[in-house]
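INTERNAL AUDIT FORM
Audit reference: QA-55
Scope: verify that the stored structure record matches its stored sequence.
Auditor: D.O.
Record contents follow.
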Amino acid sequence: MTQLLARYGHELDAAFIITPHAYHYEQTKACMEAGLDVLLEKPMVITGAEANGLIETRARTGRLLVVAFPGSLSPQIRTAVDLLRSGELGSILTISGLSWENWRTPNLGTWRQQPALAGGGFFFDTGAHMLNTITDLAGENFTDVVAWFDQRETPVEILGAVIARLQSGALVTMNACGETCTRSTADVRVFCTQGVIFTDIWGKFLHVQRPGDAQPVPVELPKSLGVWQQFLAVRNGEISNPCPPEVGLRMAHLWDAIRASAAQNGARIELSF
């Protein structure tokens, strides 16, 4: 990366980083310090310390950093966040997330199952979308986390279950199954005192059920742009940054706690901010 930037940096004004997770922090930091705006693939970084480092680098360099989570970048999740923050649906009571995929076998022997490169397994690969979308929808810090992993004879977690609590007292559950017979599928539901939000971890759709509705009602919204198109729209000042590193920081703190709890067979981890 240093050699690439030294040779070509003067010809560039932006970078899209799509390397294995362990390289995200150093490469993004180097690009911003070289004067480039950055679109960074998910997950943003592996640890909370790295997330804080990128926020500091962004502040110091004044460069743009957008994390390429399709969920947070979608009109569906942005609209859901607006509904939740407006109070129209009342207070959040619980959030439930599920992610499942035939992930274990196709990724055997790849970098995605090497902890030093990936920072985790299914829960931090496809499941990172669930972690990010739920963190974005919640809009507040987590205070308590318990987690369990099953590696299924691999070096990384293939199955995972998490129970957590938000600062407001709302409860969150997340279930990730990376060894099943289907393609990647997901479900996210936010239960509030005056309604329920139905979506998925990529923001592909948004349904809302309000008091008196017999069934969830689809919310008609424009199709989400691709992550690069969204990045360009942010750079051009057409929209505000839908997925800044602050969202990645909250997710990174959550992942730190999940890993710590799972390493201790479901020990309760308290987070303080």
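Auditor finding: record pair retrieved intact. The chain has a mean pLDDT of 95.
Action required: none
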